[in-house]
Anaphase-promoting complex subunit 4 WD40 domain-containing protein
Amino acid sequence: MSGGTGIPVFTAGTDESSVHGLSYVHGGAQLPSGRVALTVAADGRLRVEAVAGTTRTVRTGRLDLAVLNRVLGALRSGPPGAAPGQDAAEPGTGRRLTVVGLLPDGDASWDDATATPVPGVGRALEALAAQVLDPAAAGRLPGVLLALDEIDPAAAGSTARPAAAIGTVGGRAAYALAEPEQGFGLVALDGADPLGGSGTEAGVLPTALALGAAGGRELFAVGGADGAVQVWDAVSGALLHGTAGGEGAQAVTAGLVQGVPLVFSAGRQGEVQAWHAEDGRALGLLSVAGQGAAVLCHARCAGLDLVAAAGDDTLVRVWDAATGEQLHLLVGHSDRVTALAVLSLGDQALLASAGQDGSVRLWDLATGQPLAVLTGHSGTVTALAFLRTGGDPLLASCALDGTVRTWDVYTARALDGRPVARGWLTALAAVPQDGRDLLVTGDESGQLTFWDPETWTAVGDCAPGAGQDFPVNALAVGELDGRPVLAAGHGDGTLRLWDAAARTALHTAAPDGGPVTSVALCPAGDRTLVVCGTATGAVRCLDPRSGAPLSVPTSHTGPVTAVAVGAPDADGRALLASAGTDGTVRVREALGGAPLLRLTADPAGVTALAVGSVAGRPTLATAGPDGTVRLWDATDGAPGPVPVGALPGPVGALSFGLLESREVLVGGGADGSLRIWDARDGSPAGDFAGGGSPVRSIVLQDLGGEALLASGDQEATLRLWHAGSGTLLNEAELDRLPLAVAFGEAGLHVVGPGGAITL
């Protein structure tokens, strides 16, 4: 069990010998792979710092003490270390492990450059640091053992950057401009009249802007440093739709609410979001005072559909899912809540909650009154499940102490408790078979084991296969085509669906969004949908029969790098596309916000985005840090022709246009050069040399039968070419950074910090 000891975690510059905890360092800042420092305090507070060249990344969080105890156990049974400072080597590029105040034989240090090298546990610490730094990577550590803090964009150096867009507002040519510390605003190009905007208190750190139109309304879209995308009516200023910022959603639950299939999702911070399972329409928020949630649960009691949420703040909240009214605030746990389960009993229901304080608590969902506190586990309780065995219902719990315990629900009496695994038990589920329930456990090795709860004999298992031994982070039970099915989410991001009766694999979904952290099965008409949360916050929803993914309304899990409003699709819907440093592109209905598509365009991040129409179909263009440009069908995400030849990366701007009646795409590179491709086949159609500075803005437009190409670069230089011949017509030094350029009746408009100018 973890507890708040108040012992501080290591911070930069701290003397390792003065703080109780563990410190592990490997590599060096001068190496290509950089230097990584992992520190874990005695209370489980964790900090990882990576330095490579001039780039510094810091992540903090909390590690379950079971991990620290396992590491210390390995050190106690291995070769002893030297006293800190004794036989010390000069700081270098090797590995060094120091433990202060946690070993019975005193403080100790291991260093690869000395006679006491770092033992084998160092590899596990390296894997832990890598999992903390890159939540999208496959994780060997079960998700329940690690709780990361939300990244503060400002603290991480990911603050707002200036952004601009040109379009129309109220029928007038206008521009949108966002500047750090100044909010964002809309201004008319003819006369500089203010048309609306925000101050610095708006709560948005803009990183991308777009102006467009849909359904007869003019729209203003903003992408933020926290991954949020919000859309306003540019004329009235009314907020039309948007996603909350943060790191997406790690916890999900699902169920029928008044006959409608709904999904509820929550992340490390922010509120609980409700959305329609079949079409992804966002339906509203359930407030948790911005605290986020680690676990969610859907229930039905006395004719009401309920949702329960709990997490780091130790509280359990219960709402009426139909109205959003909070019914209960359950207080009792002394540490993070990690598991919830519900048992419906006619017009009554029991809620079980458990967590890092090792206790299991029972609550009357109708009244919110506590019923019992069940104790016996000596580690964090990781999962709960109610069982029907033919007699009275039972509650089963599993924990990091390796045991499963069962309890009489009515008397709160402990019935049995025994170790069933050598390692950590991470998930639990009850599967119906022959009129009673079998108990299924998931563990850190990735295996599912089926148990007869009356005899405690193993009656079967489901193993993922050789080389796929990543932990089971989540289990959910449902029904598909009249048969019980079991959904398992793993630490490598794989989602597996099993026939629970035959114990055979039905479907395997490849990783997408990092380790699966939660999973739910939702009945939706004649099908059952599988929904899961992931470590990066990307919610996945798929039809298990076909494996087809469904789009869901979640934010980017990093700063938004571009937003664009495109032409209507085949159904007449204008599209809003956004891209981010998380490497994904999200496509929504521009007017209503319904999610239509999510695709991973570049795992290294998307640096430029454009939306256009090619051969009559809505098309996306994306580019990334390596200079590669890609085309995608904006309706189904299918990759299009590959533009021939990469630009010097990162690509700073993309734009669709026409060149002598050909549909083309223009891109601008890090050296100021431009390239034009035929958008239908990807063949090159023109190259234009730059001045060596990254391109920030591009526009290609036909004026009186002549195609003109304009671009602005990071050194505030504007260049104008005759696109057909490649002739440079003009080059001008500006007094502002050209964030957006567009041709108008009065000339060429340029928008940058401070406002707009016309050339």
